[in-house]
Design goal:
The chain is mainly α and 159 residues long. 82% of the residues lie in helices and 0% in strands.
């Protein structure tokens, strides 16, 4: 039980501080955390991630595309259960931010901020490309950091 509480508090802290402290837009470890918490911790990781994300969203305030953001994370968490090896993790590092980008920006488009036409949808995605780049880079960066931590832990406890 102590490990469960520790895991939850770690995930909550990482999500909270990465979203509250100043950072480049969309440059957070959140997608990496979703991928790896689900991959390594299965249901415990998924539940910890979702509860942590809920707490942080309640603190930051709810918004009009919340269902799209949460929907994208539910899909990312679900798909992360099918990761079996390092090749799958590499694929996930690049595909999961794309899923997040496509779903959440579709949600932005549905709010009517952009014309509710095909041209408006294209403009919405085009305007979001800089955020997508930050999401891709941050997911790769934080995933690499997680991989190094895993490797370091294996090396330390094997000797």
């Amino acid at each position: 039980m102590k490990n469960v509480i520790l895991i939850f508090l770690c995930i909550l802290s990482i999500i909270f501080f990465s979203r509250v402290l100043p950072h480049l837009p969309n440059f957070t470890p959140v997608i990496s955390l979703a991928i790896y918490s689900s991959f390594f911790l299965k249901r415990l990781g998924m539940i910890s991630f979702l509860i942590s994300y809920l707490f942080v969203d309640m603190y930051l305030g709810l918004n009009s595309i919340l269902i799209w953001t949460w929907g994208s994370f539910l899909i990312i968490l679900y798909l992360s259960n099918f990761i079996k090896n390092i090749n799958h993790r590499i694929l996930a590092i690049f595909s999961m931010p794309t899923i997040f980008f496509l779903i959440t920006n579709f949600g932005v488009w549905t709010t009517g901020y952009y014309d509710l036409t095909f041209q408006g949808l294209l403009k919405c995605y085009t305007m979001a490309l800089p955020f997508y780049a930050n999401t891709l880079v941050s997911t790769a960066f934080f995933s690499l950091l997680i991989e190094f931590i895993i490797l370091f832990k294996k090396r330390i406890f094997q000797t």
